[in-house]
Amino acid sequence: MAENGAIARPYARAVFELARDSGQLSAWADVLCLAGSVAESGAFRRLLNAPTVERSAVVDVLIDICRHSDSVKMSALQDQAGMANLFRLLAENRRLSVLAEISVQFEQLKADVENVVDVVMTSALPVSDEQKAKIRNALKNRLGREVNLRCELDESLIGGARLKANDLVIDGTVLTGLDKMSAALVS
What we know:
This protein has helices at 2-22, 25-40, 42-49, 55-68, 80-92, 99-114, 129-143, 174-186, and strands at residues 116-123, 146-153, 161-165, 168-171. By secondary structure, the protein is an alpha+beta fold. It folds into 2 domains: 2-112, Peroxidase, domain 1 (Orthogonal Bundle); 116-186. The longest helix has 21 residues, at 2-22. The chain is globular and about 60 Å long. It starts with a helix and ends with a helix.
């Protein structure tokens, strides 16, 4: 939702600057990713919207989840008080629901400063390591950045592959080719 993006932007930038200045980009990215996932869960949304639950209690639950998660090593985040302050500020401003978007925007800022782009390649068939390396190198040359390539399978594509990097989409799937041919025949 575009509105959430606009709301999240100043928070993401502020946290990014704090994380960059403290050399904690990766640790903050991990915490924001986890907090964003929690904030999108149905259970958390119900808790957040419960009229009898204080916002401070919701923040305490979120902090506890982040501190006790096996997926995030909170010891890596030196500024745990900053994390708690961020969550309290978001709760005070009724913005906890945009944590996932804050995480997404933070990751984009982090990728920009690290000169890295995430690319998702969706293909009909598994791709060999050699093919992945060739695609990664071609994209690196085209985009002028390091490439993190993630591969996904979608047999409905029939054949070929689709690459997506931010707003850039390169679609070389058989399904798209058939759709184009069908549209040309109909018109």
